[in-house]
Amino acid sequence: MIRRTLAVFLCMSMLMVQGFAADRDPDRRSIRGIPTKNRHLWAVLGGAALGAGIGVLAPGGTKSAWKGVIIGGSGASLIYLTKHRNQEGPWAYVLTNTALGLGIGWTACDCGDGVWAGALIGGGGTAVIQSFKTRSKTLAKITGSTPKGAPTPPPSGGTTQPPPPPPPQTTPPQTTPPQNNPPQDQQDQDQEKQQDQGKQQGKDNPPELPDAPQPKDPGNR
Q: What value, to the nearest 5°, has the Cα angle with vertex 50 and ends 93 and 8?
């Protein structure tokens, strides 16, 4: 009876909060949404609240509620990390999988041994896969590791090196076009033609000789 009353109270509270939020005029803060640096924490809190609600409805009382908090919060954190790779460091994956293994081991065994076994398997397995890498894309995604053969991504928040500058382009040498001078053979042929024409004109028109002197008449002596 207490669990049902608590569940109804939570549902009514969410409806009342939604009603109060609807009456408020939107501004720049509400349009902007959750800041990027707080989204991971917001996802963990939302998952923990969701798990707590499910644990309250499940049999087991307070113990089930705490199991739901651990599994819901760590599960939401793992989903956020897989959607936003390289935003958090490798320790975020180790802590998240440690908490998730703890909650799953506690739920499966309902004993202290299950808690320790799940925490060690989750955290230790994540650290091992991060160290040795794996070919499975699924394991690489949930452990924050880089698959074998893939290029190593740059660290988050670090400065990326600019690409190397292109090699200098050398301008090709400009060649002057050749002048349209007739070849030497053509010039020789033209000179020979001119000489032949001059010789032919000399044969056709011989030079005029001066007139011979007239003989004197002997009667005039």
A: 170
